[in-house]
Prior knowledge:
Helices cover 71% and strands 4% of the residues.
Amino acid sequence: MRPFLLGAVGYPALEVLWRGRTHPSMALAGGLGAAMIHRIHQTDLPALGKSLLCGAGITAIEAACGLLWNRQYQVWDYRRMPLNWRGQVCVPYTALWCLLSGAYMGVENLARRR
């Protein structure tokens, strides 16, 4: 439950810092993403594999949220980004999710040591 709550609060806060705004649906997306990262982090996959899997999973969550809540591109719009799908997801942000997932897993490791 903690990873979900951390993501549900942390991701919208990150969006406000990055873009200056967020949408209530991003709390659900952030919570699901953080819970997924936590579960993948517990596997025996190598670190790179975990990050790639997390990035793909977050992209899938973002695509699903986009199809539900972003049909008019009022929440976000990736139509001008390279390699985008329907303006809902794009490869550059998938790469960013991979990097951020790796950082999140590093923070989990530090928290677990305390």
